[in-house]
Here is the input.
Amino acid sequence: MVATMSLHPVYREAAELWLSEDPDPKTRAELQSLIERFDRGDAAALKELHESFHGTLEFGTAGLRGILGAGPQRMNRVVVRKTSAGLAAYLHAHVADAGTRGVLIGHDARHNSRVFAEDTARVLAGAGIRAYLAHRPWPTPTTAWATVDLKCAAGVMVTASHNPAQYNGYKVYWGNGAQIIPPHDTGIAAEIAKIGRSDQLKMPALVEARAEKLVIDLDEALHDRYLAAAIALRAQPNLEGDLAIAFTPMQGVGARSTEPILQRGGFPNFHTVPEQREPDPDFSTVAFPNPEEKGAMDLVLALAKKIDAGLVLANDPDADRLAVAVPDATSPTGYRQLTGDQVGALFADYLLEVQPKDKRMVATTIVSSQLLSYLAKAAGADYRETLTGFKWIGNAAMDFERETGGRFVMGYEEALGYSIGPLVRDKDGVSACLLFAELVVWNREVKQRSPLEHLDDIYRRVGLFVTEQVSITKPGSEGLAEIKKAMDRFRAKPPTEIAGHHVETVVDLIKGEGGLPPSDVLVFKLEGGRRVIMRPSGTEPKLKSYYEVRVPVAAGEPIATARTRGSAELVELRDAHQKQI
Here is the structure.
């Protein structure tokens, strides 16, 4: 064991250096214990040192995100301070009035979120850039909106969204309110790499920075303005009804935004899961605080059954996502949870029908269903398809508005993210709650149908799209290497058939194919409109595969019959591809 460890002295030395600059007593104590275990010949300590000090966190789909702990591969105060210093340097170099325009800083209620936000404010203040600091935890969309509302040069949101409790993250917005894209992401990363020791950065105390007006504390009035602007997104504000709603913020920060927007927006008959209303950084009521995960919606579905709810809504912990369930007598729980593709299709179909028929656009990502493109074509609306990540949808919306003078209607990604109109250039689970409640009442009062019947109507018009996503989790650096190996193997020798269906086209986005920026994504287009997509997650150690088949619905054919056909085809496609992995 000692011989094995002697091969890795660099991690032991790096850990000692880290101890000398780490300002956090908790991570210092954890790292000191890890070093002592390493010195005693603990193999697990060697692996942990390797995971923590081998390389650095890099900007991905949503900025930085990682497990809390010491080391450059973890989220901690050293990493946050260096990242903030790199951001400050980049802003000074590229935004002439960055110092006066400032940076908006928001945060959720996770472990260390407030500490990271305050450290960010102090670093920026030390660099001569004003920091507008959130007065309390709030949703991610509030930060995206406030960055634009206050005309800031950039925004920072400290959050790990729907990741488990041991994670945190650092999301950066440009002054336009959208998450950073090239060249800003690579430019900031280059500046971060130039930063030396974090304990040598100029960091005035908050009281001093406040006195010099370099740190400005925000207040509830700003959040109220966001809610008012979001309520103004309603397509039919006169549509109200006694709709019973069961809601959960999943122990995140959504309650203080979603509850008032429903109350003030015309849907006051909501009931919040009491055990999940207040923020809990440990997420003690769920195994995984992601409404897509099995069991995460159990408490809100139980509440819905108790109150006979006509709609079930769930935010993820930073309230940028929305999960929806609607009554379904055939389900064991009495409710059917809709997929992100289904919610996106319902939003698009509703808004394209009831809003003005001007020059307008809808958008989604390459891994979402192809259904939206059919709806857009039928409605005579423009359609844009982007890389995975809402930063691409936000920028596509602004490009469309600038190039055509047209109107952005909505965008979505299959991972439960939706943006209605131009208010927030990121996914917004708060405004989406209000708009979906309106959609349900419109269906009930105007169309005399349920949301499920609305979906069936869409399928009869453009075809039934059956989709599924499968994620293979591979933790640690070894897992990431396995994911890369799998992608390399499929690139080197793409399959010629999957489940007996000929692969007609292979699109490799890493080569810039498909008319999109280079990205680690493979698209296999099969005969009959079938599709398989593979990509590594940008925020988690997962290899994700997306499957879709389109089934035309014959006149008079029950939707259930078409769905059975589609589901059987999808299972064959999925299983055959998974065996190839």
Residues 144 and 177 are 5 Å apart (CA to CA). The mean pLDDT is 95.
